Amino acid sequence: MFEKLAPAEIEKRSFEIISSELEERGIILQKENELVIMRCIHTSADFEYADTLSFSEGAVERMKDLIRGGAVIVTDTNMGLAGVNKKKLSAFGGEAFCFMADEDVALEARERGITRAAVSMEKASKIDKDVIFAIGNAPTALIRLHEMMEEGTYTPKFVIGVPVGFVNVVASKELFIDSDVPYIINRGRKGGSNIAAAICNAVLYDM
Fold this sequence. Notes:
Blueprint: H1 7-24, H2 34-44, H3 49-52, E1 53-55, H4 59-68, E2 72-75, H5 78-83, H6 86-90, E3 96-98, H7 103-112, H8 116-124, E4 131-135, H9 139-151, E5 158-161, H10 169-174, E6 183-186, H11 193-205
Parallel strand pairs: 2-3, 2-4, 4-5, 5-6
Antiparallel strand pairs: 1-6
């Protein structure tokens, strides 16, 4: 039996269903992280995010502060870039970027024998504004960010680490769990560009 809903009501109904199923499962979300977790579930229909999403202390408020200060968002895929609500972000003076398809990034990656994602992070580190990194695909992006921290050349202001896959995915996320960098990380193999964008939007929609 189909539910007859106006287009504007569909998302609201989805969140009602999510809230109801969380209650049925006996899952109580921390209030400060609730909207982020629920939007990730809404995006993926996967309730495991209620258990695996990890937040540094005060992460959501810290991300909001950065956005209010005009921070930019850098993604590791054009899909992630497309998913971020750039209109909401621009209201605070921010922009969103993805450097993965840039010719200079591709050329340097070939010359050095490393991934474009790693070179993209280096390019992003040169932006003269605070940067929120939204990584949903490439663990090498997280690894390079962490390497730059260890080298003392760059420290990100905020990391959303939700790459999906099998090779180095779990380990790359764990690099930031015990760091001093504010983060929202999904532990384990799951994630994706859509999840990275969903996290950005959950915070933007709550501002």
